[in-house]
Amino acid sequence: MAFLEIDEVHKSYGHHEVLKGVSLNVERHEVVCLIGASGSGKSTLLRCVNALEEIQGGEIRIDGDTVTGAGVDLNALRRDVGIVFQSYNLFPHMSVLENVMLAPIRVAGVAKGEARERAMTLLASVGMQDYAKSYPDRLSGGQQQRVAIVRALAMQPRVMLLDEITAALDPELVGDVLEIVRELANGGLTMLLATHEMGFAKEVASQVCFLDNGSILERGTAEQIFEQPREERTQQFLSRVVKSGRL
Amino acid sequence: MVGLVLALVGIAMMVAAALRLRDYNGSGLVATIVGAVLVVGSLYPLVPAFKAFAGDRKRSRLLREDQLVPARRAAAAAREEAQIAMGYAAAAVIVAGLLLMAFANGGGVAETFFTKSAWDASFNEMIHAFWTNIWVACVSQVLVLIVGLLLAIMRMLPGRAGAPLRLIALVYCDIFRAIPAIVTILLIVFGTPLAFPTTANWPPEWLGIVSLTMTYSAYVAEVYRAGLSSIHPSQSAAARSLGLSYTQTLRTVLVPQAVRRVIPPLLNDFISLQKDTALLSTASIAEVVLVSKLWESNLFNLSPITLAAAFFIVITIPQARFVDYLIERDAARRGAH
């Protein structure tokens, strides 16, 4: 039994079906990359796992426990599942430190002093300890995204969802953020990430899934997908990515 | 051309106004000097007007010499000067017109509204009564902040469970924005002691505060609601994804950001609440307008009411400027992003 099981998930906005029966298993300590064109459903899938979107069919299980449908303690689920967004979404009225300490204090009930200590350690691990008192609007995009990652990590989630976290960054800032994700992967954190950084996906992913039009068209190891894609759509997508110089 | 005519009219009117001012003040030195300064000031639009004519002649000369680009520049400069002349002349006309109006009817206007002896007589009582306006406004504002926020949150409760409360809040806001404040005041201040005889000994100011709070919390709820819904949904998503509950998200993430955004419109509503304390005069509450009306009928002169107006101006204008400052600061901040 896999750690995170996504089973035949359907999601629609009104009559528009965005996910058409997606199934995906993520084992413990595995890093799974979702690739595919914009609008293929990558972000929606991640938001469904975190229950930010309600699903219309199928089931999602974490560690054998069903986390979709009525009666699920969403706040408890979200303690286990961290998500980092493309647009960082830091709280602009709180300092960096307050952003990181908020959930541990309010949700996990950690004492203030301990929360501060843990937050500072985490900030130091991404080189942001000197900005603890700064407000998000004083930081660059890369710095904000590093804080956003730390904010999610502070809840000690068992699986992290990363939703195109480098897509909004200037090219020279992408490297720092990816380096952090690389370290997390090496540290054995279970991760499911949507990304346009094919080179990075190739390097860290134990499994790559190509999403097209709301379903997983092809999946396999990074070598299989990038070197010998079977499906025509995958080939087209990858050749376009190669042309744009992203692989 | 228009600029020149307007300038001449302005000068003529200013001279007339200055003469009236001097006559009214019995040819006093200060009034004569003020009048002279005003007249000299009204001469100023002549400067750009003549520059404009000079510029026009220059343009014709350049055109004759076939120098197209310099001619175009000269014409543009002349137009600019002509517009400046019109702007300053129009201002002179308006100022002179206002002065003429103030001294119209042989000083009758000035006497009706600006009699110093009437001010001296009423000032002490008036300032004492104005204190009522101020503390009633302050207490109401605090209550409005609280009730308004509760109403706004009620209107945004989610799901079917929240539906009845949403409806109540909606009906409340609609009704109290529809009823003129003065009607609410009459109903509450006169009605409450009749309906609840135990409240008959309450100071009427308390009931005045209740009625102003009822009216203004409906407006302020709308302001809060606009502020809350202006926060991008991604903020809520980020908070919920960390495990914060709906209430925690509201309290720690949404409300603090919304309140910051709505401070300028909120202060605008507060300014109008302050002014509406004057409506309490209809409910026989001894605030500044009621007292000024008593003095007015006593002295058969409107100057005490002008004094009440001056009181409101003195406390309101700084606040209005402060609101503008906040709005500009926010705009600058948003521009910096």
Description:
The complex is a heterodimer of chains A (247) and B (337). Chain A has 247 residues and is of the alpha/beta class. In chain A, 38% of the residues lie in helices and 24% in strands. Chain A is built from 9 helices and 10 strands. Chain A has helices at 42-49, 74-80, 96-106, 112-125, 141-153, 171-186, 198-204, 222-227, 232-243; strands at 4-13, 16-26, 31-35, 57-62, 65-66, 81-84, 159-163, 190-194, 207-212, 215-220. A 6-stranded mixed β-sheet of chain A has the order 6-7-8-3-9-10, with helices on both faces. A 4-stranded antiparallel β-sheet of chain A has the order 2-1-4-5, covered by helices on one side. In chain A, strand 7 (159-163), helix 6 and strand 8 form a beta-alpha-beta unit. With 337 residues, chain B is mainly α. Chain B has 2 domains: 2-113; 116-336, MetI-like fold, CATH 1.10.3720.10. Helix content of chain B is 85%, strand content 0%. Chain B has 13 helices and no strands. Classes of the chains: A alpha/beta (247), B mainly alpha (337). At the A-B interface, helix 2, strand 6 and helix 3 of A face helix 10 and helix 11 of B.
CATH architecture assignment of the largest domain in chain B? Orthogonal Bundle
Q: Share of helix among residues of chain B?
A: over 70%
Going across the major beta sheet of chain A, what is the strand order? Answer: 6-7-8-3-9-10
Radius of gyration of chain B: 29 Å
Taking all Cα atoms into account, the compactness measure Rg of chain A is 18 Å
From the 3D structure, determine the CATH topology of the largest domain in chain B: MetI-like fold
Largest sheet of chain A: 6 strands, mixed
Derived structural class of chain A: alpha/beta
Which shape of chain B, going by the Cα principal axes?
flat
